């Protein structure tokens, strides 16, 4: 540790720390543009200049290491003059765009020019102009504003793993852009907007829509993948105008995936805003009373064992639990939340969680991916894997389709379960890597268990984790990577077949006469047998709504208070940012009212009462903003029927089109444009 004096305040910082970090430890604010805590040091903006005793000139604090006994001055006359001069240089070519710039009110350059700049500039020559660059349908560029801090270049290379941005030219001719003008091929491009300290990179969908002070800001959680990134939903009136990430070091750090960030326009398209009932083969609008009366009339006389319910991938845990209570009250055990048919053993929670934790990736030293592409299934989690791999402390291997670009080097062991067997018997060289690792991780994708032999694959992956020492009281190295924010919560809520109950395949095989679909759009509705009475409760007129006999309009995740559990088992709360459209209502309220119409008394009338029931049924729901983090104390594997063995067929991936993987993104015009551009085999250029 080194003792450093900052403006008369003595602080102790680790050896190797920078002067900027020491200043922050002393509570001193240091202006900066190029420096970012999660990126490598560039030291090229010079805004962070400070005075160091005995140094001949001001030093860039972001790149200058501390030394024991060093004395630093952050607000001397020398420092103030140096910062004013640096700001004057930065503003030489910067246009006076503040009145029309989308960064106005949230601009680091604007703020620091006010706080640290001078009263004017001495530059009288003509300002330079730079052609705007095309980076794709999500990021808008006004490159004349660029101050060449290179944050975007370093983010694309180091975090996103796509070295497609860089500087061309020198001196006054230097420009930032893609070397060949095309759309950036990353699922994390929206983060470039957040880290840009000026208005050079802004949101294309949000351009010229509003000013930040016009927005109502609501903290929530992203449910469009299973990472559960902390987000802020910005609304104006009845409309979501943008979604931004919040910092959560244990989950998403400060990053966010593009689908969750930019698909918000899907929240106002194809919405269900009134009940509908099918009469003589045609859907017609109805009142809530008519809809509930129609349901009661059609379900009358149908025995409980002929009723079924399916929960979708984006539902909140409250809604899943409420529907489960209703179905139990009707005498039905036919429940399923696994639309993909995943063979998940729910007898123990660690059989279906990402047990190491997302932050646990930072401790892993060997990683095996089975039947998953985390770049498409969980881009933020994939960036964390890349960060650990970039440090040189993590070796990665994969079993699944060949040729995947994960943004980091991964040894391909094979395409099917044979590679798993080779690891078990030690004939694969990577088996020794796993056994020799102190913190080995095995990540099993949902697609790997959504096969006819899914139960055998789950058991084999668990057995492999046990054989390589990944299951110890200090470390739980078995992990399942889910796809959406509502999947784990529904499992925790017990939305699976009860004793003697049917799963989704059994229900679609003619085992029920009436089917309640709670936001269930993840399977082909054409598989529902003709004559089955279908109730669809959801927020979008997606696949299943067209098959429904009764449609009950629910609320999207931005329109209700709800509990979601991410892939690592962390319980999080989403909050209502705006009211549902039209006559749509929160899903648990719809289920409560339906229960009254069906003569089933549910033991809750308020959200608090419902949550209390949930905690009583499963105490994990009481651990809000936390997770049960523990090692593996019982290595007993998942249940497996006798004689079951993995098949030889190759693994496939769960997400084929990242941009349109759920009902909200399928309704989004922005995501449709992304799908058109990025799924086309031919690179899309700006001129097109």
TrEMBL record:
Q: Work out whether the entry's keyword set contains Metal-binding.
A: yes
- Domain 4Fe-4S Mo/W bis-MGD-type: start-end pairs: 215-271
Give the E.C. number(s). 7.1.1.-
GO MF, one annotated term? 2 iron, 2 sulfur cluster binding
UniProtKB keywords: 2Fe-2S, 4Fe-4S, Iron, Iron-sulfur, Metal-binding, NAD, Oxidoreductase, Quinone, Translocase
Domain 2Fe-2S ferredoxin-type, by residue range, is: 2-78
Q: Provide the 4Fe-4S His(Cys)3-ligated-type domain boundaries.
A: 78-117
Q: GO annotations under biological process?
A: ATP synthesis coupled electron transport
Q: Which reactions is this enzyme annotated as catalysing?
A: a quinone + NADH + 5 H(+)(in) = a quinol + NAD(+) + 4 H(+)(out)
**Which InterPro entries does the annotation name?**
2Fe-2S_ferredoxin-like_sf (IPR036010), 2Fe-2S_ferredoxin-type (IPR001041), Mopterin_OxRdtase (IPR006656), Mopterin_OxRdtase_4Fe-4S_dom (IPR006963), NADH_UbQ_OxRdtase_75kDa_su_CS (IPR000283), NADH_UbQ_OxRdtase_ferredoxin (IPR054351), NADH_UbQ_OxRdtase_Gsu (IPR010228), NADH_UbQ_OxRdtase_Gsu_4Fe4S-bd (IPR019574)
Q: How is the cofactor bound?
A: Binds 1 [2Fe-2S] cluster per subunit.
Cofactor list: [4Fe-4S] cluster; [2Fe-2S] cluster
Q: Which CDD domains match?
A: fer2, MopB_Res-Cmplx1_Nad11
Mind telling me which GO cellular component terms the entry cites?
Answer: membrane
| Entry function | NDH-1 shuttles electrons from NADH, via FMN and iron-sulfur (Fe-S) centers, to quinones in the respiratory chain. Couples the redox reaction to proton translocation (for every two electrons transferred, four hydrogen ions are translocated across the cytoplasmic membrane), and thus conserves the redox energy in a proton gradient.
Query: What family does the database annotate?
Result: Belongs to the complex I 75 kDa subunit family.
Please identify the protein, giving its name as recorded: NADH-quinone oxidoreductase
Native organism is Teichococcus rhizosphaerae
């Amino acid at each position: 540790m080194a003792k450093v004096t900052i403006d008369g305040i003595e602080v102790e910082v680790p050896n190797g720390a920078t002067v900027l970090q020491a200043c922050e430890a002393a509570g001193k604010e240091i202006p900066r543009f190029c420096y970012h805590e999660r990126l490598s040091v560039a030291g090229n903006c010079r805004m962070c200049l400070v005075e160091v005793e005995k140094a001949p000139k001001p030093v860039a604090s972001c790149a200058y290491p501390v030394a024991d006994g060093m004395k630093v001055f952050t607000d001397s006359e020398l420092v103030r003059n140096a910062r004013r001069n640096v700001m004057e240089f930065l503003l030489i070519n910067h246009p006076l765009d503040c009145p029309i710039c989308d960064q106005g009110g949230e601009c680091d350059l604007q703020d620091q020019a006010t706080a640290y700049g001078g009263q004017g500039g001495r530059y009288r020559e003509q300002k330079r102009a730079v052609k705007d660059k095309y980076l794709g349908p999500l990021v808008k560029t006004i490159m004349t504003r660029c101050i060449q801090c290179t944050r975007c270049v370093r983010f694309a290379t180091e975090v996103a793993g796509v070295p497609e941005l860089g500087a061309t030219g020198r001196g006054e001719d230097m420009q930032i852009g893609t070397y060949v003008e095309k759309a950036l091929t990353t699922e994390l491009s929206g983060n470039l907007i957040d880290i840009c300290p000026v208005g050079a990179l802004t949101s294309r969908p949000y351009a010229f829509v509003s000013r930040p002070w016009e927005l109502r800001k609501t903290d929530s959680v992203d449910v469009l993948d299973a990472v559960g990134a902390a987000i802020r939903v910005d609304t104006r009136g009845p409309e979501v105008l943008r979604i931004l990430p919040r910092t959560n070091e244990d989950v998403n750090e400060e990053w966010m995936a593009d689908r969750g960030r930019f698909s918000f326009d899907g929240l106002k398209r194809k919405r269900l805003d009134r009940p509908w009932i099918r009469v003589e083969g045609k859907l017609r609008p109805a009142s809530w009373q008519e809809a509930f009366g129609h349901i009661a009339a059609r379900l009358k006389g149908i025995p409980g064992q002929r009723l079924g319910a399916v929960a979708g991938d984006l539902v909140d845990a409250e809604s899943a639990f409420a529907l489960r209570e209703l179905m139990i009250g009707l005498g039905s055990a036919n429940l399923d939340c696994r639309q993909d048919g995943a063979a998940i053993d729910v007898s123990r929670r660690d059989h279906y969680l990402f047990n190491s934790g997302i932050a646990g990736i930072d401790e892993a030293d060997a990683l095996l991916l089975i039947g998953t592409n985390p770049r498409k299934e969980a881009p933020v989690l994939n960036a964390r894997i890349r960060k650990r791999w970039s440090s040189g402390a993590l070796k990665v291997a994969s079993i699944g389709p060949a040729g995947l670009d994960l943004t980091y080097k991964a040894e391909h062991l094979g395409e099917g379960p044979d590679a798993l067997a080779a690891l078990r018997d030690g004939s694969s060289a990577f088996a020794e890597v796993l056994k020799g690792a102190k913190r080995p991780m095995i990540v099993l994708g949902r697609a790997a268990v959504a096969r006819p032999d899914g139960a055998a694959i789950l058991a084999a992956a668990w057995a492999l984790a046990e054989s390589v020492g990944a299951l110890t009281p200090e470390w739980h190295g078995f992990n399942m990577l889910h796809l959406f924010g509502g999947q784990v919560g529904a499992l925790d809520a017990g939305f699976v077949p009860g004793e003697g109950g049917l799963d989704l395949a059994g229900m679609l095989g003619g085992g029920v006469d009436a089917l309640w679909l709670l936001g269930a759009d993840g399977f082909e509705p054409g598989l529902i047998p003709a004559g089955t009475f279908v109730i669809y409760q959801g927020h979008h007129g997606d696949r299943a709504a067209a098959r429904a006999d009764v449609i009950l309009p629910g609320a999207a995740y931005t329109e209700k208070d709800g509990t979601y559990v991410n892939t690592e088992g962390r319980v999080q709360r989403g909050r209502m940012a705006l009211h549902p459209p039209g006559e749509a209502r929160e899903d648990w309220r719809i289920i409560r009212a339906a229960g009254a119409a069906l003569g089933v008394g549910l033991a809750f009338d308020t959200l608090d009462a419902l949550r209390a029931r949930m905690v009583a049924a499963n105490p994990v729901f009481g651990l809000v903003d936390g997770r049960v983090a523990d090692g593996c104390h019982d290595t007993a594997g998942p249940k497996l029927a006798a004689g079951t063995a993995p098949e030889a067929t190759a693994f496939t991936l769960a997400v084929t089109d990242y941009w349109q993987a759920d009902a909200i993104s399928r309704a989004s015009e922005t995501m449709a444009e992304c799908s058109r551009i990025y799924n086309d085999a031919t690179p899309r250029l700006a001129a097109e």
